[in-house]
Amino acid sequence: MLKRIIKRNGTVEDFTPHKVNMWSQWASSTLGDRVDWSRIVLDTIKQLGEEAHSQTLQKQLIKTCLEKRSWPYNLMAGKLYIALYRKELYGDIIPTVKALQETMHTHGLMRQLKYTDEEFITIESLIDHSRDFNLAHFQIHQIRKKYSLQDRIMGTEYETPQFVYMRMAMALAEDEPIDQRIVHVSNWYNHFSFNRLNAPTPNYTNLGTDHNGYASCCLYTVADNAQSLAIGDHIAYTMTYMSAGIGGFINTRSLNDSVRNGAIIHQGKLPYFRSLAGAVKANLQGGRGGACTTYFSCYDPEVMTIIMLQNPRSTKDKQNRDIHFAMMSNRFFAVKAAKNEDIFTFNSYTAPDLHSAFFSGNAEEFENLYHSYEENPHFEKNYVSARKILTSYGQQSFDVATLYHFLVDEANRHTPFKDKIYSSNLCVEISEPTAPYHDMRDLYSEEDHGRGEIALCSLAAIVEPNIKSDDEYASVAYYALKMIDKCIHLSDYALPHVGFTAKQRMNSGVGLMGVATRLAKMGLKYNTPEGRQKMHQMGERHAYFLIKASLQLGQELGNAPWMHKTKWPEGWLPIDTYKRSVDELVKPEYRYDWEDLRVAIIANKGIRNSILIAHMPGESSSKASGAANSLYPIRDTSMKKTDAHNVIDWCAVDDDIYGDQYQSAWDISSVDMVKAYAVFQKFTDQSISADLYRDRTANINITTEEIIETHLAMVKYGLKSRYYQNSLTSAQEKPKEENEHEDHITPNEKAECVGGCTL
Question: How far apart are CA 73 and CA 498, in angstroms?
């Protein structure tokens, strides 16, 4: 039994139960009977010997709370944790914003923000450190370990959460007019601090510093010539060390195709995939190599080989486990697979016009060209079973997880872009045009030379359950886009032409966080008509206020210079081109006046951003916001989540109240998840990192019928992409969700599941 406490100054005194009781009562004061603070105290003391340091006692209290694996206890742990954390950093007096920022500037961690002494006084009145006491333990720990500025070599820390939020807000508002910027500082700070606006990792770590890399996603295409192929590797290498995830399309000919009129036999795509993997893995991001998803066509002559590249049972010469892959297909392929018919293979070398039509939203154009090639006796045809391609791809998706899907015709049909979209990004939620470069010098030009384009996307998200009204939603949408706007212009671009096109396009991707929590609190499910109708309302509100905010920013700052390359000036809205089969799932009832918005967009000749909405995984940043990530259902109400070397004890919000109403991802069929995503895709001008889930504990096998049914549902309801195919394979324990961009699987993890939870 604990008898003595060793104080911070080394003195020893008798253990006084009253003090630890007071700590626990204080930490639970806002939680009522949702926690049993006395039980926490008793269980904590049992873990200690006769003598303990005061910090050890405090840390054991926190650990005991976390072992309860529930949201209210995580809040209690958070309150104890932030008190201990502050004491370790600042002693008894929290520094002012100005003093802390000057200290970080002195130590080379932060640049000096250009605010007057009078403004710092006002800012000091805005920051509210008591808000840290409302954060769950895992939120504080995520911000502390991953997002706060610190000397990681020396182990010196500086920022608690409110200081992080204020640094970000001040950096974003710094160049605003002097008479307006404190208002903007206040608004950004409140949206961050109240967890309404979710920022991506680069914003947390780089705002207010000399490191200005903010783009989250990079997409590029290479053409079928030696110069362009070499440039592709240079792009991947450079953008990896600039901290972007990579999505690439190597548009080259296939194995045994002719080169130089038959003087050389082409080696196919595999050597270029190996070269790309080397470029991406050469530099580290957060302690591990970069990540890339490379895209290939279902009609590619090497399609069956590429599908098997990540299979560990493939021979070494036909194996590539260093990058991810995504198969691109269209509606015509789905029809052929459904009918169990063959397709002939082709590429940009053997059938250039048909290959170009593949990247088109016009299904009739592709089908007519396909049939003309089929009827052409001079065109050499190699037929493959479409169903075999689809089922092989589907089975490998279950086996390796990092084999994704991109429905390229839908991406080119349901979009405001006029230029062709050739691929998506690392996580398959970005749908933007790219064009190949043929001369390396063009990458280093800041002019509109019309030769090549790398697409970038800057991200943000709105934490839907934390929004109280439409007015608040409108404000968060405005500041989400304004943050992205700032980051596009603040960014340093290692490849100058990337900076030029980024500022011409003004591409943004704003997603949602916490959808699972909203549904749980309303007692709704992902796979019911009532649940889908609520998701329809969420999707509509999200799109409406983002478009309206972009219109406002266009009026204030000017439209994107390349607005003419989109359909926005013509009054395009996502409700114009969504897949009408979604009307079978939900009633097309609208709460907002879309026609008035259309008239205003036409009058303004467009909006500020070429693109607006993308539903990213948000696996890292959602932890900081205390939210269930993205559109996803939860896997369990409590999980261990890892992010590089950081491990947190995550809990679903209010799981003690709504735990029975949270629907587990493992209880939702793939087709029902497709339908849920399709409702959001209706209002999404880009795409969704759409995860699917399969409980395989009873039967590990996946049938051909299931693979085909899921794929046909994706095509029917207008999904543009499918991300991880997650599998639950252990009956003993549900999987603990892991960082989705980790590319290793430990033996224990492999025993539990395959998919985004372990990757």
Answer: 47
